[in-house]
Amino acid sequence: MRTALDGPVPQRVPRMNAPVSPAEPSSARHAPPLTLANACLVLPDRLCRGHITFEAGRIARIADGGPAPTGAIDCGGDIVMPGLVELHTDNLERHIEPRPEVDWPHLPALLAHDTELASTGITTVFDALRVGSIHSGSRGYGEYARQLADELLAARAAGHFKISHFLHLRAEICSETLLEELAKFGPEDRVGIVSLMDHTPGQRQFRDLEAMKTYVTKKRNFSEAEFAEHVARLGALQARLGARHEAGAVAEAARLGAVLASHDDTTPEQVAASAAKGVGFAEFPTTRTAAQACRAAGIAVMMGAPNLIRGGSHSGNVAAQELAEAGLLDILSSDYVPGALLLAAFRLAALWGDLPRAAACVTHRPAEAAGLADRGRLAEGLRADVIRVARAGDVPVVRAVWAQGHRVG
């Protein structure tokens, strides 16, 4: 997952079974052969001017230079690179609840989400769904993941999606119903990732209670009294159920055949605990110390693309650029802005002076972290998930997107 400069990562992530099916997308298998010529190809270890051919949904040939084959699309020197792989996005939740307490019809929301991701160059997504609810208190929240997953999987089976969708279950440790909700999922549900989310006030992302207060009161319109009740309730839930929920979520990830991820690790001790559980990658470590501990433990570090673009974390945690400059950044996630993923990769390319290395953070490194060996690189025999990118100054512009050789954007 790393460059030679970064050193090797132990292979500790199980491979997922991700078969090609007519439903992903429905016409991908039957897409006619297509060649993109006169392109700047972003290969795993270098850039080259050449052409690439898709056949039957796979990359059939890659060639340096030479004349463009008859019938090829002349890319005019545009960049051609693998489709982006997104491991953690809240974008679907934004579509099903576009305003607080507004429940948007789910199929239109799913289709809009899918189309938006395709338009930004994302060809594989792990849709993050919360599992674990709180029913007590005045401002609790209910279960939704199983129903939405059923609707998502039905839309996929019907061939409605442009890109490849897997599930990412965000296991809320501080909840009342985590294990009951996880038990409703099975190995057939395309659950690729289970992340351990501990949002107990006073630690990890919310170790600064004033920062947490600002975030929560704006997001959920809490009063002072409601925020105090929220803090007390989460602390009590952690004390009563935290250890049981964490152990149960680790076991459920193994049952589902999913990769296990940590979330907001802050201290070396938390990273050591994550490593002991078999965590494959760390989502958004909050300190440089934690990122260094991840590197020592062979755990890949994922940071948010918005953090990199904005120049810092909105919650006051470590800046993604600081980790990138220190060689401690492996994977980028769009988090809450789908269009941030490609833009952040080009920002990294400028920082490192190395486009293939930067592109790897949004293509083959996340694919490897999720156990997907069939995508994320321009290589013969892999899925023809490919994007064509032009530049407007230092801003990448997506000009075309193919999923399994089928034009989807």
From TrEMBL:
<dbReference type="InterPro" id="IPR011059">
    <property type="entry name" value="Metal-dep_hydrolase_composite"/>
</dbReference>
<dbReference type="InterPro" id="IPR051781">
    <property type="entry name" value="Metallo-dep_Hydrolase"/>
</dbReference>
<dbReference type="GO" id="GO:0016810">
    <property type="term" value="F:hydrolase activity, acting on carbon-nitrogen (but not peptide) bonds"/>
</dbReference>
<dbReference type="GO" id="GO:0019700">
    <property type="term" value="P:organic phosphonate catabolic process"/>
</dbReference>
<protein>
    <submittedName>
        <fullName>Alpha-D-ribose 1-methylphosphonate 5-triphosphate diphosphatase</fullName>
        <ecNumber>3.6.1.63</ecNumber>
    </submittedName>
</protein>
<dbReference type="InterPro" id="IPR032466">
    <property type="entry name" value="Metal_Hydrolase"/>
</dbReference>
<keyword id="KW-0378">Hydrolase</keyword>
<feature type="region of interest" description="Disordered">
    <location>
        <begin position="1"/>
        <end position="29"/>
    </location>
</feature>
<dbReference type="InterPro" id="IPR012696">
    <property type="entry name" value="PhnM"/>
</dbReference>
